[in-house]
Amino acid sequence: MKSDTSKQLFDRGMKVLVEGCSSASRGPMNYAPYPAYIREGKGARLWDVDDNEYIDWQLSFGCLPLGHAHPAIVDIVQEKVMGGTHFATALEVEVEAAELIVEMLPHVDKVRFANTGTEACMTGVRMARGITGKRKVLKFEGHYHGWYDGLLVSTNPQAVTTLGHPNDPVRIPDSSGLTPGSLEDTLVCVWNDADALERMLKTHGHEIACVVMEGAMSNMGVIPPKPGYLKQVQEMCRAYDVLFYLDETVTGFRVAPGGAAELYDLQPDIVTFGKALGQGFPVAAIAGPDHIMESIEYGKVLHYGSHNAPRLGLYAAKTMLEEMRRDNNAGWTKINAIGEEMTTRLNQVARDTGQNMRVQNVGSMFHPVFTDLDEITGYRDFCGHVNLAKYGEFSKLMREQGVFFTGNKILHNLSCTAHTQADIDRTIEAAGNALEQMSR
Ligand code: PLP
């Protein structure tokens, strides 16, 4: 595979960009010795600047349920861009997109649009504090909610030095530059363990504004909740008078039309969306029932942003939802079926080649890990039993065969409506080759 042009861009990029690009996740840390610079995407395909073609399973970290350059998205964006890009005023499409979302989500009365998941989560936490008057937030080991100071704790297995006792996990800051003050009000709990949460709520419930979590872990591979666990969390939150905040930045409009809340039959107090919602444009949202959302009315709990409700992004979001909902939500049926097939067949290839690779999924999100365990149920399994270097090697061998599996060792891969049976078959064949090569 040729990579001369990427190499040249990397050399130029290193002189003017940190790590040659704009996020550590995209640079040499995950794509050694240098990343492929991507030129364009169409459907489920990517091309890099050296004309290498890839089947894309990274899909912009989950931002593209319809794949790249879907004709309906291209049409609407081309039409609307002629009328201007951004007005920072109220918009017709803002009302229309919110109406669609409210129609789709029974637990949501109102929506407030933002740009990124991080901003949305920052606002969600501020709302919880504003509404309850309580200071602390309880999050879970291995759950990532963006790079906001107050939630950037215990998210990275590579940074782990000590985990502490499961009843009292240690808060591990995931960045330098965080003040002790910003972490003081963040409590960390073990996930998928109802007893651990009950203990925390018994002791700290009076000072906790919200319990915030992903509906399925998506930043430590893919780890589904144990059956009934999320319902127990919701009940406990109600019993201890703590808001239940479901961060659906990844799972929203992906694992089901109504996200993890629909999949696991939940009625969260606060929800946040991002990623899939914008279909490749930066669109995020904070949403919930009226009595929660009224907290941001007139800046009581402040939520501002020059780029909130981006016009073109909202046209893309609305069009994506309309496309995915066609024929009784056929879009979600398709991407979830592909996710299931990828999971089953990758697991089969692992067995056939004698490699200890295990693939877990929730619908269209799936991820291979190399482990001695039969199942990964949480952060502690991931920290202690997953060989991240082996996934790095596997994903590199896949990309060298024209299959773009994410190089980020703790993230996940995903399907979109543009993936075909031939894409799946070719990917499985490439996985067989990669695992054979790793066995030699
Ligand atoms: N919440 C979750 C669950 C995420 O996975 C992410 C990003 O990966 C975020 C929030 C932050 O979203 P963004 O990268 O758009 O700021």
From TrEMBL:
InterPro entries to which the protein is assigned, alphabetical: Aminotrans_3, PyrdxlP-dep_Trfase, PyrdxlP-dep_Trfase_major, PyrdxlP-dep_Trfase_small
Transferase found in the keyword field: yes
Q: Report the CDD domains cross-referenced here.
A: OAT_like (cd00610)
Q: Which Gene3D superfamilies match?
A: Aspartate Aminotransferase, domain 1, Type I PLP-dependent aspartate aminotransferase-like (Major domain)
Keyword terms, alphabetized: Aminotransferase, Pyridoxal phosphate, Transferase
Keyword Transferase tagged: yes
Annotated GO molecular function terms are: transaminase activity
Superkingdom is Bacteria
Query: A single Pfam family, by name?
Result: Aminotran_3
Cofactors that this protein relies on: pyridoxal 5'-phosphate
What the record says about family reads: Belongs to the class-III pyridoxal-phosphate-dependent aminotransferase family.
| Name of this chain's protein | Aspartate aminotransferase family protein
According to its UniProt entry, this protein's organism is Parasedimentitalea denitrificans
